[in-house]
Amino acid sequence: MHVHLENTTSKPRPFWLTPELVDAARSSNAALPGEVRFTIGSDLQDFAGSLSTATVLVTSSGVICDPRFPRGDLGAAAPNLRFIHLIDAGVEDVMPLNWLPANVQLVNNSGVHVEKAREFTIMSLLALNARLPEIVWHQQRAQWEQVFTPLIRGKSLLVIGLGDMGQAAVAAGHTLGMKVFGVRRSGMSVPGVERVYLPGQLHEAVELADFIVIATPLTSGTRNLVSRSVLEATKQSAALLNIGRADVLDHGALVDLLRNGRLSGAILDVLPQEPLPSSSELWACPNLIINPHVGADDPTTYMTETMRLLFANLQQHLTGRPLQNIVDRMSEY
């Protein structure tokens, strides 16, 4: 079996697929047959030859979206291919999956971020509760404004999206002694969540929340889910954190509500364009902290956890068992 790992060197170096990562993973997975062969490439140089014999492709959405990637006829270019492991959690950039042959599965990196996401959410909720975005805004203007705030314990947290990232946010809320509610497409209960709302009940749900965390993937059903009308239904002085996907949120409405004091603060770890252009009105928005999409990425563990997931799926594939983290073509995540 041939496993090909294709890098894009535009990614920061800690997130490259390297021989050292493969060797370390192999030493921890002695049961993996020796005939499994690994190759590594970068930036689609000599990619066609590697792809032509690969059973498994490990890469990023940037490679899949590159015009040189054979999305138009992947079945012919990679006749042995059985699954693609994306080292990203979000898959919206490669949707719809009409380019993916029916006999090839797509796997994502969901779950690799969880522990760092929990830690980042704890930090962000504490910062929002302390009105840190507002304090920073005053500092930038050399204004002495004392902002006094109560403890976060007992306040209400609404988590929109209860997958791996959402459940990390739920855990963060419990660590801080908060009351946690959630929004989930299925409406199914989740341990530690007092009540789960359906997306159609979002206006009702946000009325209860002191803090809102967006943790949902981007799909055709979640685009602009947190719309202007949803934001206008929030509690006075509620605060918002987005660790999900940017296009779930109406940023124009967010700016308006932050400027008029309707929302007390916001932290965005995902932005409508990345890198965010200097012309964006978000840079000058009061009571907003822009985090450049690094909140859930631990450079010391991200790729080792990626390898752990990959090698688990290689074992699953070789023994004819279902893979972990299969992306559903209809659900879009």
TrEMBL record:
InterPro entries listed in its UniProt record: D-isomer_DH_NAD-bd, NAD(P)-bd_dom_sf
GO terms assigned for molecular function: NAD binding; oxidoreductase activity
Species annotation: Paraburkholderia elongata
Record keyword Ion transport present: no
Name of the molecule in the record: D-2-hydroxyacid dehydrogenase
Domain D-isomer specific 2-hydroxyacid dehydrogenase NAD-binding: 123-295
UniProt entry keywords in alphabetical sequence: NAD, Oxidoreductase
Any Pfam family the entry gives: 2-Hacid_dh_C
